[in-house]
Specification:
Layout: H1 2-30, H2 34-37, H3 39-64, H4 69-94
């Protein structure tokens, strides 16, 4: 009885992992701009790989005893995928990669530079103060 329940849990995690990975891949190909495309791999595909690895962990733990490799791979994937996506987004902001015009919101990094002073605030004389 316990084996059939665990096989159902394994099947559920593998199906969920495949579904998350598929949805993340669709998001990567169908979203409008670079910033939106980062959400596919960083969120849903990470969950897909995590579910698949947890299913593998349960299966091989039942067959061969405790297995630590899948657990370490899962933790590593959950830590590194969002960090790498964050670094890609920061790099895109640094290079001022423009978002799709239909996207709502405008990050501060992409707003045009304003002059330091307006005419009314223009410093007078030789003062070193701004």
């Amino acid at each position: 009885m316990l084996d059939s329940i665990l096989e159902g849990v394994i099947a559920l995690t593998l199906i969920a992992g495949g579904a998350f990975a598929f949805i993340g891949s669709l998001g990567l190909t169908h979203l409008k701009d670079f910033y939106m495309r980062l959400h596919g791999p960083s969120k849903t595909t990470t969950l897909g790989v995590g579910c698949t690895l947890i299913g593998s962990l349960i299966y091989f733990s039942l067959r061969e005893g405790p297995v630590i490799q899948e657990l370490l791979i899962t933790v590593f994937a959950f830590i590194t995928a969002p960090v790498s996506s964050h670094m890609l987004a920061k790099s895109a902001l640094h290079h001022k990669l423009k978002p799709d015009p239909r996207t709502r919101g405008n990050p501060i990094e992409l707003q045009s530079e304003r002059p330091k002073h307006t005419l009314e605030e223009e410093p007078q004389g030789d003062s070193p103060l701004p």
